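Practice problem 4.
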């Protein structure tokens, strides 16, 4: 832990089954829910002090896309206004089953001023890009901020970590 210059908290949200746990299994410093989304019991504490936020839907499930406005209500209520947010359409490997076209996902992301990516946790498509983009952007932001105020760069860094429960259905890296 002491070897890291910055530690960022990135939270993943979205309907159950969209692939959050599979996405995150490749990256141990990212927080995942422990399935609370099934009970809509994600609260302020999960979002607190998050630097990054990834809202995931399944491109093969219109229902998970239709639930996004509800998730945004939570984000607007609980997340830091300056959180770096990404909308991610996962499961692009299931081409024949796609229900949500790319441009519709992108349109939603634009409306809420979020970054947008489509991924496949199964094929590892764009997963590295997602997490490295977030890490690079947050690091740049933090560097810029510490240049302005040399001693303030640690105040917003969460030192909490949470182990990620294993998921037998996830694709091994
Ligand atoms: N085809 C495909 N299946 C996926 C992908 N990501 C996750 N899954 C499957 O979707 C199901 C739910 O994944 P999980 O990560 O537990 O979803 P969570 O509830 O959002 O954490 C599991 O059966 C995974 O194997 C993906 O990119 N492609
Ligand atoms: Mg999960």
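Answer key:
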């Amino acid at each position: 832990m002491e070897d890291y210059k910055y530690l960022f908290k990135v939270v993943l949200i979205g309907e159950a089954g969209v692939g959050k746990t599979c996405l995150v299994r490749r990256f141990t410093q990212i927080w995942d829910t422990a399935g609370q989304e099934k009970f809509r019991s994600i609260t302020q504490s999960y979002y607190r002090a998050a630097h990054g936020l990834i809202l995931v839907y399944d491109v093969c499930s219109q229902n998970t896309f239709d639930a996004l406005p509800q998730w945004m209500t939570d984000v607007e209520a609980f997340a830091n206004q300056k959180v770096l947010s990404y909308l991610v359409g996962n499961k692009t490997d299931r081409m024949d089953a796609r229900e949500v076209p790319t441009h519709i996902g992108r349109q939603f992301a634009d409306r809420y001023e979020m970054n947008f990516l489509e991924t496949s946790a199964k094929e590892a498509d764009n997963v590295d890009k997602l997490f490295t983009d977030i890490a690079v952007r947050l690091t740049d932001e933090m560097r810029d901020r510490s240049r302005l105020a040399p001693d303030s760069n640690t105040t917003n860094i969460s030192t909490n970590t949470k182990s990620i429960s294993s998921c037998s259905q996830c694709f091994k890296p």
